[in-house]
Backbone:
């Protein structure tokens, strides 16, 4: 499976090269260079985001790096998370703060009061009476009005919960392989799909998190959006690639019987790799941009997520056993999936924005699909192919204590029953 690794290496090399040659714009859109007024004139919000409950009051600041050359009047603007301006004040979850004037030669920060009206989320921006300030729309502040601050903390706890559950899910299978010194019962197709999927996921995360050029492309599409990749996403995806690589090494070192990657799997992997190669070439010759290429690579990851458990489920059916397939990883995956959906529900309720749940059918659908496979594996392991240990006891020998239910039968009665059976 070593041919997967160059994909990740090329992505990292591309990241470093672009990072050295390209200077990032204000990715989060918190700073706007107002070049037409003065090359060094910056306008900022003092914070990048604010969270408040209904009827709660908080203060924000707008400050300037150097004195203005003239008087300007500013008004606040309101956009939804898709960047669409909201002109109907009834759709704004805060009381609209009044406009303010920047006096000539003033550098004092201006303070605005925000009062929560109802749960919701918007991007607060600025607009001026001057038309000579291109880029001012990039200055924005994320405002969230929630039902309860406590639910904000709870959703963060849930997020870390499914992060650790999914991260730990790789270890039960790895430990089982090491303990048995065998990988018999583990589908090699599952491992092959898993490796390619997490390499694609790593490529997407690295590109959006570390490559300024790709960040700028994302900013053009989502001027008020926040990058959907954080450092823990980088860690999780690279960690997954490393652990799956270890499992593949175990396949080479431990007993594996006649197991191998199937022809069907090789064909599907070849199609996916060809798709990735064509997308990369198109991006390299500027027919598509690199952000689009990364989105194409992420689609491969989505396809892998839909496919990867199927070979293992079929393998278990053919063997009529789950021996060699760790149910521990399924328990962890199920836990992570449930917590992920729970977090989406909490966020939707707390912000009164159910479109964040139903408006992301891919994320919700994949989570439900994965949980569906978890139930399938639970059924195979605990119902259909449940294994029972058989203990052989020689005549006259005492049975192992673990074979008796000491809570319902005492030791004396058990001995009498055994003697009666021998007689």
Residues:
């Amino acid at each position: 499976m070593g041919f997967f690794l160059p994909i990740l290496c090329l992505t990292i090399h591309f990241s470093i090269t672009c990072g050295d040659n390209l200077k990032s714009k204000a990715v989060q859109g918190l700073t706007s260079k107002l070049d037409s007024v003065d090359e060094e004139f910056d306008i900022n919000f003092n914070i990048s985001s604010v969270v408040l409950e209904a009827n709660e009051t908080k203060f924000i600041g707008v400050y300037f790096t150097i004195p203005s050359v003239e008087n300007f009047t500013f008004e606040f603007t309101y956009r939804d998370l898709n960047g669409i301006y909201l002109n109907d004040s009834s759709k704004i979850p805060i009381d609209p703060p009044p406009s303010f004037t920047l006096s000539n030669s003033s550098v004092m920060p201006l303070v605005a009061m925000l009062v929560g009206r109802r749960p919701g989320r918007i991007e607060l921006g600025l607009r001026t009476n001057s038309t000579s300030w291109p880029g001012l729309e990039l200055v924005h502040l994320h405002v969230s009005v929630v039902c309860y601050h406590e639910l904000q903390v709870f959703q963060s706890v849930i997020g870390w919960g499914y992060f650790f559950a999914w991260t730990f899910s790789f270890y039960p299978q790895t430990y089982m392989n090491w303990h048995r010194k065998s990988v018999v019962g583990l589908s090699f197709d599952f491992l092959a799909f898993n490796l390619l999927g997490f390499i694609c996921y790593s490529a997407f995360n690295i590109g959006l998190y570390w490559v300024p050029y790709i960040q700028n492309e994302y900013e053009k599409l989502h001027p008020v959006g926040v990058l959907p990749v954080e450092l823990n996403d980088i860690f999780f995806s690279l960690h997954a690639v490393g652990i799956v690589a270890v499992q593949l090494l175990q396949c080479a070192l431990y007993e594996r019987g006649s197991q191998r990657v199937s022809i069907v799997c090789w064909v599907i992997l070849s199609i996916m790799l060809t798709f990735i190669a064509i997308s990369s070439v198109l991006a390299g010759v500027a027919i598509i941009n690199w952000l689009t290429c990364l989105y194409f690579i992420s689609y491969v990851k989505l396809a892998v997520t839909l496919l990867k458990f199927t070979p293992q489920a079929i393998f278990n059916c053919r063997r009529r056993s789950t021996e060699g397939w760790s149910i521990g990883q399924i328990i962890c995956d199920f836990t992570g999936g449930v917590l992920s959906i729970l977090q989406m529900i909490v966020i939707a309720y707390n912000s009164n924005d159910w479109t964040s749940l139903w408006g992301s059918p891919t994320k919700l659908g994949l989570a439900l699909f994965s949980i569906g496979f978890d139930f399938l594996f639970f059924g195979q392991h605990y119902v259909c192919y449940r294994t029972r240990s058989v203990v052989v006891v020689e005549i006259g020998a005492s049975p192992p204590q673990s074979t008796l239910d000491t809570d319902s039968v005492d030791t004396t009665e058990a001995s009498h029953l055994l003697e009666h059976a021998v007689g």
